[in-house]
Design brief:
Elements (H helix, E strand, L loop, with lengths): L1 E10 L2 E7 L10 E7 L5 H9 L7 H4 L9 E7 L4 E7 L4 E2 L10 H4 L15 E5 L33 H20 L3 H22 L3 E6 L4 E6 L2 E4 L5 H18 L14 E6 L7 H14 L4 E5 L3 H4 L6 E7 L5 E3 L4 E2 L6 H7 L9 H18 L6 H12 L3 H18 L6
Parallel strand pairs: 3-12, 3-13, 7-11, 11-12
Antiparallel strand pairs: 1-2, 1-4, 4-5, 5-6, 8-9, 9-10, 13-14, 13-15
Helix pairs in contact: 4-5, 4-6, 5-6, 5-7, 10-11
Length: 424
């Protein structure tokens, strides 16, 4: 199962939009599509629109639409058994009833109450997470089995994580491993250990430190050991809480769903929507998230919105879509989708993808602009601002090694061309 195209009409800042989603180029890694653009260009709206493919909750889009117009969404997709396009009319709160997705029960399955488990096996599912995800302390009273519906709120970007259920599941998994091991059921214990190890390895690879998750007693609480330091959930750095929240939640939901042919968890086909995954993350960690996920889930299709050049430049083979606003305030795809390449510098990504060609802070950029302006005047034999040029040169030469190198090179060329002796 993969989404192949998206069409929008009068949805948010999109008057008309048609996107085709090409297949992945690396068969052993996840397919990734990255939406970029300034604030207000509709990146989150695209994710919300894609998420309506099975979810019946239109509230994430209605506030962005003019209900006096036809607000239409068409999501096209392919499954091993069929190809189809699902139509949604936001203004009329209606959808295509012929949708064969999940046997026609997509909306039903994703709107079951929290305590009603889906009575079927899956061969694909959908999950969504926003940049505002957060994990909070929860006091575990006892070890108890949870029977929450894994699909409950899973397409509500801002409420997809049930903090209580997640911490309880971590505690249960640790406890179940210990019980099975104590009873000599080592194969079953290994299954519980495997999923805990996945979470630990993902976190360790992203933050570059050894992570171990355990359960303390008196009182019961989850402990995350970072190298040699033990931390409770409430005392974890925000960045680690951010990663742990959605990674553990995703694995918990996959683990709790019955799957066709008992497909191993990491080999399952799912579609993942991530809205600004870089929130709370240090740039060094932003560079690690996508490569880890891309490698870990080879059969996933992932759609991401981001403002981070470190996210965009962190993987090879992802499709990058750059959006911008026209004079009427409508958002458009500014150029054909490009393909991410980790051999590109962040300076190039900032310029080509994010439209930022400045290298230094605003004050230094202004000084450099003025330096080049007066340099050109001197080359044209205009010396009205020569003393200003000398003062500006001295100022920039003492800023940093980088500005000294840039200005020094320019001065030497100027001296050669004009036969002058401006000091370097």
């Amino acid at each position: 199962m993969r989404i192949t195209a998206l069409e929008l009409e009068n949805i948010g800042v999109f008057e008309q939009l048609h996107l085709e989603f090409s297949e992945k180029m690396q068969p052993d890694k996840a397919e990734i599509h990255i939406f970029t653009g300034e604030n207000g260009t509709g990146k989150s709206t695209l994710l919300y629109a894609l998420a309506t493919i099975v979810g019946a909750d239109f509230t994430q889009l209605t506030s962005r639409c003019d209900v006096e117009k036809e607000n239409l969404i068409t999501v096209s997709y392919k499954h091993q058994d069929f190809a189809h396009s699902t139509n949604k009319n936001i203004s009329k709160q209606s959808s295509d009833i012929s949708n064969p997705l999940m046997g026609g029960y997509g909306s039903y399955l994703y709107n079951l109450s929290i305590d009603k488990l889906p009575k079927r096996k899956f061969d694909f599912v959908f999950f969504a997470y926003s940049g505002n995800r957060y994990m909070q302390k929860y006091d575990i009273k006892t070890i108890e089995e949870t029977y929450n519906n894994p699909l409950y709120n899973s397409l509500d970007f801002h409420n997809s994580i049930d903090n209580k259920a997640l911490i309880q599941w971590l505690a249960n998994t640790i406890t179940n491993e210990a019980i099975e091991k104590g009873q000599g059921n080592f194969e079953q214990a290994a299954k519980y250990r495997k999923i805990l190890t996945m979470i630990e390895q993902i976190l360790s690879e992203i933050i570059g430190k050894e992570i171990k998750i355990s359960l303390a007693t008196k009182p019961y609480r989850i402990i995350v050991k970072i190298d040699e330091k033990n931390c409770g959930i409430d005392s974890l750095p925000d960045g680690i809480k951010s990663i742990l929240s959605w990674v553990a939640d995703l694995l918990m939901k996959l683990d709790n769903l019955a799957w066709e042919n008992d497909t191993p968890l990491l080999e399952r086909n799912f579609i993942l929507f991530l809205d600004e995954i870089e929130v709370h993350l240090h740039p060094a960690w932003q560079r690690k998230v996508l490569p880890v996920v891309q490698k870990l889930f080879p059969n996933a299709q992932i759609f991401i919105s981001t403002h981070s050049p470190f996210v965009v430049g962190s993987v090879d083979g992802a499709y990058i879509y750059k959006f911008g606003l026209d004079e009427q305030g409508n958002s458009h795809l500014l150029q054909p989708p490009s393909i991410s390449d980790t051999s590109q510098s962040y300076a190039l990504i900032l310029e080509e993808i994010f439209g930022i060609d400045e290298t230094f802070g605003d004050n230094v950029e202004k000084d450099l602009d003025e330096f080049y302006e007066i340099r050109d005047e001197l080359l044209a034999n205009k010396k009205d601002r020569e003393s200003q040029f000398i003062n500006l040169t001295n100022k920039l030469l003492h800023k940093s090694l980088e500005t000294r190198t840039i200005v020094g090179s320019e001065i030497r060329q100027l001296n050669r061309k004009l036969g002058t002796s401006y000091a370097v």
